[in-house]
Design brief:
Elements lengths: L21 E12 L2 E12 L3 E5 L6 H8 L7 E6 L2 E2 L4 H4 L3 E4 L11 H9 L10 H11 L15 H12 L6 E5 L7 H16 L3 E6 L2 H7 L2 E6 L2 E7 H7 L3 E5 L3 H10 L4 E4 L2 E5 L5 H10 L6 E4 L4 H8 L13 E3 L2
Helix pairs in contact: 3-4, 4-5
């Protein structure tokens, strides 16, 4: 929701920072397959220029949500916008600016990788016939398939098929790229190459939506995260904010560790010594209260930062209710 302010208000009133522009959004998104609920009331925001990792176990609704975003599946209920266009009605206007690799690539098995890519390029609205050869060769080189370009697709390994699908998504400059499990079948070297491509797209201002179950890859490449579980978004926001919110600890760097520990304990703030300082527990105190207590105690504070939980731990906490734990029953949204 955007809040508007009257320009005649008195001085000293500061308007909040405007909400980030969105490359894609859903509201109340729901998809039923007969009696099976695949996606249920998903509100998803994909900020422009972000690399958003969509996380979730198998069957959590990731691919179904992506297919509805791209207009490949019509939602049972809810609204979808892609690059400012309602979907699927606006697919013809939005999709030329979107490159996508969803549920694995599909190409002609008896054609070579180059021939398959040329066929795909001929359907690109942003490519003229004279530009197709150059675009195809550039895409093949970008994903490391130039040496295998003349080999028939049926002889490709799973990783090579993924690379060719990615090449198809990158035939022309895009405003948004959607990748569903892009590292599936890739060896470590191939995974690093995909990570590099995603970083290059991000540097160019392209919005990237990545669906994955590889937590380490998401943590290494993404700026934002959305966690799906049982067809519902249980958390979304900036990755750094989510990781910091998952831990109630404040790490204080100080040469006066013993003195800091004594001051915090005197202020009834649980704490323990760590290398280069102390860790203060934030379950009963706020970060400003910790800093104030230390300063009043004459402790030299060099650095203060929130303790970050690992993405694996955060993911387990968010999806814990499946196993009877507390989990989260509502969307835990973190905004910058």
């Amino acid at each position: 929701m955007t809040t508007s302010f009257d320009t005649d208000q008195g001085a000293g009133v500061t308007a909040p920072a405007p909400a980030p522009a969105l490359a894609a959004r859903t509201r109340g998104l729901r998809k039923l397959y007969r009696s099976t609920v695949a996606v249920d009331q998903v509100d998803l925001d994909v900020p422009e220029g972000a690399v958003l990792g969509m996380l979730g176990p198998n069957g959590s609704g990731k691919t179904t949500t992506i297919r509805m975003l791209l207009g490949l599946v019509r939602p049972t209920e809810g609204e979808v916008e892609l690059l400012g266009r309602p979907m699927p009605e606006g697919a013809q206007r939005a999709l030329p600016d979107v490159g996508a690799l969803v549920e694995g690539p599909g190409f002609h098995p008896f054609l070579s990788g180059r021939e398959n890519l040329r066929r795909l390029a001929s359907a690109e609205p942003h490519l003229s016939s004279s530009d197709i050869p150059t675009a195809v060769e550039a895409a093949l080189e970008r994903v490391g398939l130039t040496g295998a370009a003349n080999r028939r697709y049926r002889a490709y390994s799973l990783g090579m098929k993924q690379r060719l699908g990615l090449a198809g998504a990158l035939l022309v400059p895009r405003r948004m790229v959607v990748l569903d499990e892009p590292t599936n079948g890739l060896d470590p070297a191939g995974t690093r190459e995909i990570r590099k491509i995603i970083a290059e797209l991000h540097a160019d201002g392209v919005t990237v939506l990545v669906s994955s179950h590889l937590l380490a890859e998401v943590e290494a490449t993404c700026t934002h995260v959305a966690v799906l579980h049982d067809g519902t978004v249980v958390a979304q926001g900036e990755l750094d904010e989510l990781l910091e919110s998952g831990s109630p600890g404040l790490l204080v760097s100080t040469p006066d560790g013993d003195k800091a520990l004594e001051a915090l304990q005197a202020g009834r703030i649980p704490a323990k010594l760590i290398p280069d300082g102390v860790r203060a527990d934030l379950t009963t105190a706020t970060a400003p209260q910790v800093v104030e207590t230390l300063v009043r105690g004459g402790v030299a504070v060099h650095e203060v930062r929130r303790e970050r939980t690992g993405l694996e731990d955060l993911f387990a906490r968010l999806t814990q209710h499946e196993d009877g734990g507390e989990g989260l029953s509502e969307v835990d949204e973190v905004t910058a």
